[in-house]
Amino acid sequence: MATDDEVLASDREFTWTNSDFSRIKALIYKHAGISLHDGKHAMVYSRISRRLRATGHSSFRDYLDWLEQTGGAEWQEFVNALTTNLTSFFREGHHFTELERMVRAGGPRDWKIWCSAASTGEEPYSIAMTMAEVLGINGQFRVWSSDIDTKVLQTAARGVYKLESMKNVSTAQLQKFFLKGKGNSAGMARVKPELQKHVEFFTLNLIEEGWPLKEQFDIVFCRNVMIYFDAATQRQILARIHRVMKPQGTLFVGHSENFSDARTLFTLRGKTVYEKV
Predict the structure, then answer these.
(1) Catalytic: which of 20, 147, 149, 218?
(2) Residue 102 shares a structural domain with residue 235
(3) Secondary element (H or E) of residue 221
(4) Active-site residue 47, yes or no?
């Protein structure tokens, strides 16, 4: 078994030890609640190496010492580097079918939705498109969209995507909700302002107290987020989500997430669809 100070890789650009990994693991858990397992060594080395280069440090130890003493804005860069942002338009399509059914059944009213892991924007825009197709582009709905990663939120706010990444967006949706690029922007599409006005992006760390959410939400999307947290952190976040939802509000979660241990908060209503207790 490797000791904490054992050198795991010395033939790379930067020497990498168990101690380096353990420190990073503890710091990202403290600041973002993300629980890294030992299979993440290569990923962590690769991503934090970029921060060493960007900040001019020659070792992980020096960088982490500096981060803990005078990190400042670098803390956000550190967190950004270790978050995973796998997303796509209309990912896990059955959720959008259910969302459409719910909104048609509920009828026109002021729908309030929170997308708690907005990433680069595909998910909140998919939600907004679904809402607009039922209620009309000028319907009463708003999609509050948060993420801990500030860089992906910048991409989301721009709302510009490669057409090749939009295979799940129908031709009709593409024409209705996007502007196709021309000239130097050929092969790209931008979200139309009429849809974008329904979506608001902001930074939020799910493990921090005092969420800046003043609404009570009809629907919350928290998909493929909890897999990065341990059981105690999951329970804490679920309790906070429960508090910002309307009675009998709906929670959509990821395909690999199961909250059977939170029966006092949510009850399973369908495939990865929960209702607030």
Answers:
(1) 147
(2) yes
(3) strand 217-222
(4) yes
